[in-house]
Amino acid sequence: MSFSIGIIGLPNVGKSTLFTALTKKQVDVSNYPFCTIEPNVGVVAVPDERLDKLAKLYNSPKAVPTAIEFVDIAGLVKGAAEGEGLGNKFLSHIREVDAIVEVVRDFKSDDIIHVHGKIDPQDDIKTINLELILADLETVNKRLDNLEKQSKGPSNKTLLKNIEILKQLKKILEDEKFAINLNVPDEDIRFIKELTLLTYKPILYVYNIAESEINKPISGAKEPYLAICAKLEAELTSLSDKEIKEYLDSAGIKHTGLDKLILHSYNLLNLITFFTAGPKEAHAWTVAKGTYAPQAAGKIHTDFEQGFIKAEVINWADLIKAGSEVLAKKQGLMRTEGKNYQIQDGEVVNFLFKH
Ligand SMILES: Nc1nc2c(ncn2[C@@H]2O[C@H](COP(=O)(O)OP(=O)(O)OP(=O)(O)O)[C@@H](O)[C@H]2O)c(=O)[nH]1
Ligand SMILES: [Mg+2]
User: Fold this and answer.
1) What pTM did the predictor assign?
2) Are 83 and 50 in contact (CB under 8 A)?
3) Fewer CB near the last or first residue (10 Å), C or N of the chain?
4) How far is the CA of 39 from the centre of ligand 2 (A)?
């Protein structure tokens, strides 16, 4: 299983330009057996300097980064929720992703048509977000109808509670707010997640700006956001690593816009990264926050989960500071944890299991 980010926005705003730039950073997919490879899906490595440092420490010839999928979704137009443009088909593509990157155009060009005839990113965001809200409202109304019919039968506590949640969601959406704004106890989140609402997904706004505007703050931008020049990023991907480094140094920045986009997107998903490292390879793995040690082991191999005995765990920075695993053990920095331990972000783990 890998996590996916859908790139959405009005037509002609630079989604495919960004996507194509991202696909230049495609990982070697043979390391990621569960990835779906379709033309509009790009599997991209998540840059992580912790992994690079661990690979160095262990002299691992290979470093396998964790990866996320980006999905290039066709442009959305006003009225999509009623089937305008590619309409529902396109909305169903968004339903399948774990988080959304919403691209808005903030660059001027007489050659490239803007569907609304003017450059107004805030207004574009309103248009798109309203379509997402309307699509969700339809989902909620359908489900509500359905459950209300069922509630005419023998009464059932869960059913009544779910109807109540749907009514609250309906109210929020009718106020043109996102479903994510609804506060419910943890136990009810599952029901809401099953509805696969578009406005319950984490979202990042990407302002596609002109190259000349880079480093200028955007006033009134919708949070959380990132400003990127898609065209420049696309050009950068054809440079060598050395040339990119020179460019970054001369511009006085640490990461390319594309790397920032990948990192921000990864962070949106609320995941953690843990590492395994040895003489063959250093490997970064992704799991949801709160994952227990055996399930984290299962991410590597199902046998690891079934035969799980214990895990030796150390924070990556402590390990680097100690200088080696042996020295870390001597200093008592490596802990042994059992099946009720939740793996934390940045930990290096040795799983011990019986065959
Ligand atoms: N000047 C400039 N042009 C850009 C930039 N980003 C994209 N473009 C141009 O805008 C046009 C549309 O870009 P695409 O990436 O195809 O847009 P899209 O959002 O995928 O469009 P649809 O797939 O039709 O929804 C292309 O001609 C791009 O070269 C930019 O940052 N600056
Ligand atoms: Mg496109």
Assistant:
1) 0.88
2) no
3) C
4) 12
